[in-house]
Every structure is written in structure tokens, then in C-alpha cells.
Amino acid sequence: MNISDRQRRRGRPDVLQRHFHGPIKFAGSPWQWWLADDVRSHEAAQRMDQYLRGSEDDRITTLRERKGRSIFRLKAEQGDLFAKEIALPSLRKRLGALLGVQNRLFGHDHGSAEVDNTLTLNERTGQGLEVLCLGELLRGGIPDRQLLIQPWLEGWINLGEAFDTADSHQRRSLLQRLEDLLRDFHHARICHLDINTGNLMVSTQDAQAPLRAIDCARMTTGVTQPAISTALQIGKMLRELYGRDEADFPTLYAKARAMQYRIAGETGVNEATDALLALSLRYRLSKNLSRRKLVTAATVNIDGPWLEQNVRASKKNADVPAIAWEHNHPVLPDDVPLYSSQ
């Protein structure tokens, strides 16, 4: 099934026109579907459409329902598929999905955003996933629910599970693959903004396979400050993998700076990245610091102690020891190496 230029111009929003053809509707269904050039897409959309209208299908399993999102697994001869249904509870998000707009007003985590981000990530780095189709249930001509279908990652587990059960050699391999992924993000000017050990997938069948990033709805693909973005993502991932024990902080900070240097180069290690590495290693930042603003700003001026006051306002950070600062740099023991490949 080839997508013609005419078919690309028929629908909305622009993100769907660029990647799919449609919309198409199945007889008697209130859903409409946008389909990729893949023989699996039409069958998957039709089966899911029937299931959403109440038809029984023992090849479709509901895996999870939480916070307005439902996750399904579709068994198919050509390989199982993953489906995610996304509710759009507010008018602004519904309009964002309609227009394919990602911003503070219209939201960042609707289905149209996730499709665009996922495919852009895969195009730029090869470490994302395909999207076979996107379904939409319209109300008043505006999407009320969206559902995307992707290939199922058979034989893959998340990075947290892989790291917990890995020996020291396997952990070094996982860290190297994590660094490779963050390097690709850095050069592609991408910041995941929801990166965590559950959103990075590891192959259990190929120890050399690159990591895959999933759940890309909040991602920004227009980073203007790649060194800042890289520091934030390094710090968070090392904190999630190793915890935030105060006794381990100097070692993790050295490891984080070494990784930052290898990815961003000498100019990518500076006062701002030092401060953000320290903050993201120690604190959960998402509720008290707009990482999106930091990585997309024209210029940045990072004041580590001031930012720390803001993030310590969160109850999740209140019991964590404060950072010892001197001239906006974390103070560390003299014997901690500046860079380390360990």
C-alpha cells in the first residue's frame, strides 16, 4: 500500500499527513484510522476497531488500565503488536491532538505528539519504534480518544529489570549502550523528558543491540541546549540505576562527568552542566524545574544553589541531604577523579 501525495494532503493534522494515509473508517464504526505503508497496519486497525466496539477477540489482551490509558497486546501471525489507548480529558489536549500541536497550552502527551516524536526519534537515531497506525474517536469533530499501534518488542525487557539482574560485566555493557543512546540523543538534539529505567528497552537475545526508547509523548525534538539536555538525562539515569545514597554521590558524580565529557566534549562540561549533573543525581526535578525550558532556551544561566532551593520544596526531595556548593560547583573530596571510564 503506497501513500500518494494526494492521500497525504487529505487529512489532518500535518503530523498524520506526513507519516500516514487516511483517515479511513470501517463500516458502522465511530473510529477513524491513519495507516502506515505496512501490510500489518490495515489488519491491526480493523481488529482493534472491532474490539473497541465490543467484539470479542481472544487474540487481544488488556495488559493495563491506568490514568486514562489502556495497554493491549495483539497476537498476530506476522508478529505480535502493542496498542495504547489514550484518553483526552481536556479540551486543550483534544485541540492539541486535532492540530498536532505540542506546547504548554495544548499539552505534550496526546497521541498525535507521541506519533510524531516516536517516528522522529526513530528516523534520527534508529533507537525508537515504528508506528503502524493511529486511531481516533471523534466527538464534535475533535479527537476524544486516540489509539496507536506499534510492533511488540518480543524478547525485550526494560533497563531497570536488566540492570538489577546483571553481573558487573553486563552492567558495563548496559552503561555503554545507555551512553551510546544518550550520545545519539545529543547529536540529534532530542530530549526524552520522561526518560527512566522503564522507558528504555534492552534486548535479552542480542547483547549488542542498541537500546530502544519508548513512551515518547513528552519528548522534545527541538533541543537548543544539547549539553544541558545530556546532563539532565545522564544524572537522572544514573540516579535511577544506582540510587541516591549520600556515600555514593562522589563516585556517581565523577562517573556522570566522565560520561558527559565523552558525549558532549570539552565544551559540554562547564559550570551549568556541573550544577545540573549534581542536581539531577540527587533530586527528582520534574515537579519543580522546567527541564523543557532549560533545553529549548536560547541561552541559559544556571544558579545551582537557587535551583536547589526550588527542588527541595518537593516532599520527595525534603529528606535528601543538601549539596555543598562553592562558586556554583558541588564540593567533592580531592581524591575524586575529574573523569573516569569505570
Automatic annotation (TrEMBL):
Highest taxon above the source species: Bacteria
InterPro entries on file: Kinase-like_dom_sf
Protein's name in the database: Protein kinase domain-containing protein
